[in-house]
Design brief:
Two copies of one chain form a homodimer. By secondary structure, chain A is α/β, with parallel strands linked by helices. Chain A has 17 helices and 19 strands. In chain A, strands 9-8-11-10-12-13 form a six-stranded mixed beta sheet, with helices on both faces. In chain A, strands 15-16-14-17-18-19 form a six-stranded mixed beta sheet, with helices on both faces. In chain A, a hairpin with a 4-residue loop joins strand 8 and strand 9. At the A-B interface, helix 5, helix 8, helix 11, helix 16 and helix 17 of A face helix 5, helix 8, helix 11, helix 16 and helix 17 of B.
Chain lengths: 458, 458
């Protein structure tokens, strides 16, 4: 089933659009009304306009047709609305309401019914039981959550089983000053699942990494195979290590399944797994922005020893290697850092210094190093070594990550300047170390595109 | 040795004060010059004024004397400056420079010398090899890092072995909109170590929790006993789980020591340990702000299932218990949430709702619950249940933590309102869960003030 109608609509209908603030039919219309295409509020019992758009009674009345319908109606009404969609040749629907497979036998029957109707008419269903999706680069905000316009365009696609987690990730990305290529909350996955959405965003021009939140799925193998087949790097956050099965089933109608088997499966198929939304977003940002590392050797440069120790500790715990630097690099560093405390790996300059960028460059150019992780507390008089880092990752074809802390009042512009030249930044030593560790994991696993030997019992 | 001169000076001298921006002697003066007491730039080869204060040639020339000297001079000069301090009856010194015990035999000898001088004159030494300290509530910014005034007054004291980590924590707290009661970078701990500083901040009126960053110390037992003896809750972040010993020794002259023994020791002495600066600050904020929990039973209320599953998963992994709610609570919830998806623990309201505050109150009042953790994506039309939460933690005498995500543009004021009524807030599901888990750990360990049976082999 093609997802063009869902993610690239020309015309959108908001079914159940409402003038009452706080209602989903109002909030969804508010989010989507600035979309650069036709947006039609649909409500047979309303008249006048909503956000400047005239109400219509049904999608069948829309001249030129509708590609995507956002359903802000109670669950039991959904089947009849989908029949109308079939009549009007609407290609896709987002179903916000709950009361389907996540809520017992009656809901399961209702979900079966909407799948039957949708499949008969060739309608792609996002949901039910989702808060929607965003494609910020297309100005498409198909969510009923207020303020989603804070999420700006970026190059990571978040594909989450839970709409709530999708939104939590989107707002966290925005808070970090990053955009997203897309945010998708799958919900109950009535007839659009992980596979189709991953496949779509693999072909999506703006998407350079796909990050997944997974509670459980009936066909893990199919998900894993999709992850391996796509060219875009994929990361996975599988929740449910502890026993939360009953609660999870009541959520999106999925069993959390055997956590360890999922983790092993992802690793076998070349997909690194992470332990939090923050790691998912931080590492996704690095995978999408920086070159893919060729190996697991991390060169650490720090301007302060204490955070450097935290980073080295955390990297080693995660299985990254901190190799000795080459004789050539050590000779370069000896010149730059004469008399300074420690020039092994981590290279510790003791304090920020004018030559800090040259130190980072020397380590990045070392043949023993696959990933560069820098830590530097912001020092206003020096700023960050933006000039030295500009183009460095591309030149050496290695990821160069930058971890820091500093006063927001003095640091914000310098941090934005690093991001603007494609250097992923992190505001704690552990976050930088975790992102680097996950890149290392990606290299170690061969990436999900690599042709590793895979043996999974059927 | 009293630390009154160090942390409560009336008069401060900046020795090696300089007019050259970027030099430590300039930056330290810039940080400290607005202190509400006398501040004297000291430099025998400078004249005129610095930040409006006239230069003097030596601390011995300062009429009325000096309590605290900030030494912005190279290591080899420190002994003679300390002799002058002795002559002028200066009670405390911060030594920013390195080249002491962290850098080989010569440095060790120099450190021995300054300790001898300082002890002979009764001078408390912070450092050497530190970037200083802050007591924001007293307007005292004794650090050479630019922008430290971003760190506002608060109720957590950060005591870090590394000045770099101390500053990373301070800036991270500021970035989260929280203040600090104090930030102390101990550095080489020449004659002021963890024990004296912990003891001081235990008596410090503004400090409600003390959080430690530890690389290693020669006398772990003494540190542990201090942690147990104080009344203020203490948390510890012990780094060095992996082998980073050589690098750490080159840092603050300390061995990282046996990580597992430290962890076991802290737990035996009632001090929960954490795994990152973020956990240290997040849990410290909760310990300082919320009532101390009586047990390990967490009641979770969530407005979105997906983040609720993440929270339940993470809490269980950390050893927290999610008890069944009492029959009375379930009856209250049934009324509030009729027909809603899941009302066990976690209680899932499906969406934010006007009754959300009542739901939280019902769970908080449940006799089976010791810690309440709430998750709610911000919904602009409803805001957060600030009225219901105001005073709730005090009434039930349990911590109530609030975890959320949302658009910064719409959420910032509502988040600040929660913090203003003493509800600790966290901007990811995992961060809220980690803070709650560490509170649970504190309860499980009996708190460091509890009279648990302790057996440590000498």
């Amino acid at each position: 089933m093609s997802l063009i109608s869902l993610f690239e609509p020309q015309s959108i209908a908001v079914v159940g659009a409402s003038k009452t603030e706080g209602k989903i039919g109002y909030e969804a219309m508010k989010s989507v009304h600035e979309f650069d295409g036709d947006v039609h509020p649909v409500n047979p019992s309303a008249d006048g306009t909503l956000f400047g758009e005239p109400f219509v009674g049904s999608v069948t009345e829309v001249e030129g047709g509708v590609d995507l319908g956002l359903l802000c109606v109670p669950g039991p009404v959904v089947p009849s609305v989908l029949e109308e969609f079939g009549a009007a040749d609407v290609g896709a629907a987002v179903i916000y309401s709950g009361g389907f497979a996540e809520s017992g036998a009656e809901g399961e029957a209702l979900q079966d019914r909407i799948v039957e109707v949708a499949n008969r008419h060739g309608i792609s269903l996002l949901g039910p039981n989702t808060s929607g999706f965003l494609v910020p680069g297309s100005g498409l905000y198909a969510s009923f959550a207020a303020g989603v316009q804070d999420v700006r365009p970026g190059n990571v696609a978040v594909v989450a089983q839970s709409g709530g987690v999708a939104h939590a990730c989107a707002f966290e990305a925005a808070r970090e000053g990053r955009g997203l290529a897309a945010m998708v909350g799958l919900g109950n996955r009535a007839n659009v699942g992980f596979e189709a959405v991953i496949d779509y965003f693999d072909r999506h021009e703006d998407t350079d990494a796909i990050v997944l939140h997974i509670e459980g799925t009936d066909d893990a193998r199919s998900l894993l195979e999709t992850c391996r087949e796509v060219d875009t790097p994929v990361l996975a956050y599988k929740v449910g290590k502890a026993d939360v099965g009953e609660f999870a089933k009541s959520h999106t109608g999925a069993l959390t399944g055997e956590h360890a088997l999922y983790e092993a499966g992802f690793h076998q198929y070349g997909v690194p797994t992470v332990e939090s939304t923050t790691q998912l977003l931080d590492a996704g940002h690095a995978l999408a922005t920086a070159p893919t590392p060729a190996g697991a050797n991390v060169g650490v440069v720090t301007a302060q020893a204490g955070p450097g120790i935290i980073i080295a500790d955390r990297l080693k715990q995660a299985g990254a290697r901190l190799p000795s630097l080459s004789a050539e690099t050590r000779a370069r560093l000896d010149k730059l850092l004469s008399g300074i405390t420690y020039s092994a790996n981590p290279v510790d300059t003791g304090r920020p210094m004018p030559e800090f960028g040259e130190v980072v460059t020397a380590v990045a150019e070392d043949e023993n190093v696959d990933v560069v992780l820098v830590y530097e507390l912001h020092e206003a008089a020096l700023g960050f070594p933006t000039d030295a880092l500009d183009g460095l990752a591309e030149t050496v074809d290695k990821p160069v990550l930058f971890s820091t802390a500093g006063p927001e009042s003095l640091m914000a512009d310098d941090l934005a300047a690093l991001e603007a030249i494609g250097v992923p930044t992190y505001t704690s030593p552990e976050r930088g170390a975790d992102a680097a560790s996950i890149l290392v994991g990606y290299a170690d696993l061969g990436g999900q595109g690599a042709t590793v030997e895979v043996t999974v019992d059927e």
